[in-house]
């Protein structure tokens, strides 16, 4: 088996440069590649296009890249938890491409599967469909969407092995799996990295062929966006 382990986030992000397009897994703050994002902040790369379901919050996740004006364009489906995102978007500092959530996921999955484009009914008759090919199938109108093209995909998994096989835990199994193999280079950070062959093959969610670099992350905060509790009776 090919050993895909690298020492840390710094080694995993070798080759990252200004102007690149990145995919970043996660939903809200669940399952986000915290170590990769921290390294992008440290590197100070600019003019980035980021493909992510959302933009984190003001002081965490992709919000950190927004604070440093490192993102030029966001391609997302939901961005309602980030005041700095809103400010930059309304002021024209940030280019935003809002995409229906299912379409966003499918554009990732299509890239992963090597499918250049697909038709979806989502967005037909709205601004989402402007400038795109439409076609009728079985008396219903569809919009053609092209698969994403990205330089790096950064994902977060619970466990992995040095061959790149991944297991996701709970809700972190969101956009992470469909972003694996959907870019030229997929970097996976995991909470626990094991020797190749240590994982039960029946439990693996993503095979190592979709991953080029893998490392064991540290210092995960795993924040909650909005904590809601009820008083004890």
TrEMBL record:
<dbReference type="Pfam" id="PF01144">
    <property type="entry name" value="CoA_trans"/>
</dbReference>
<dbReference type="InterPro" id="IPR004163">
    <property type="entry name" value="CoA_transf_BS"/>
</dbReference>
<dbReference type="GO" id="GO:0008410">
    <property type="term" value="F:CoA-transferase activity"/>
</dbReference>
<dbReference type="InterPro" id="IPR004165">
    <property type="entry name" value="CoA_trans_fam_I"/>
</dbReference>
<keyword id="KW-0808">Transferase</keyword>
<protein>
    <submittedName>
        <fullName>3-oxoacid CoA-transferase subunit A</fullName>
    </submittedName>
</protein>
<dbReference type="InterPro" id="IPR037171">
    <property type="entry name" value="NagB/RpiA_transferase-like"/>
</dbReference>
<dbReference type="InterPro" id="IPR012792">
    <property type="entry name" value="3-oxoacid_CoA-transf_A"/>
</dbReference>
<comment type="similarity">
    <text>Belongs to the 3-oxoacid CoA-transferase subunit A family.</text>
</comment>
């Amino acid at each position: 088996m090919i050993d895909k382990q690298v020492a840390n986030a710094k080694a995993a992000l070798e080759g990252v440069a200004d102007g690149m397009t990145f995919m970043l897994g996660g939903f809200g703050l669940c399952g986000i590649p915290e170590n990769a994002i921290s390294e992008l902040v440290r590197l100070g790369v600019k003019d980035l296009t980021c493909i992510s379901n959302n933009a984190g919050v003001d002081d965490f996740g992709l919000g950190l890249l927004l604070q440093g004006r490192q993102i030029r364009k966001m391609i997302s489906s939901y961005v309602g938890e980030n005041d700095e995102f809103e400010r930059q978007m309304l002021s024209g500092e940030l280019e935003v491409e809002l995409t229906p959530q299912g379409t966003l996921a499918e554009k990732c999955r299509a890239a992963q599967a090597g499918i250049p484009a697909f038709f979806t009914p989502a967005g037909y008759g709205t601004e989402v469909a402007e400038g795109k090919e439409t076609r009728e199938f079985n008396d219903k109108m569809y919009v053609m969407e092209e698969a994403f093209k990205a330089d790096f995909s950064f994902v977060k998994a619970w466990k992995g092995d040095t061959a790149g096989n991944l297991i996701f835990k709970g809700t972190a199994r969101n956009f992470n799996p469909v972003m694996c193999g959907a870019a030229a280079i997929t970097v996976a950070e995991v909470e626990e990295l094991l020797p190749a062959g240590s994982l039960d093959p029946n439990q693996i969610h993503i095979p190592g062929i979709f991953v080029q670099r893998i490392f064991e992350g540290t210092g995960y905060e795993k924040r909650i966006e909005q904590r809601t509790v009820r008083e004890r009776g």
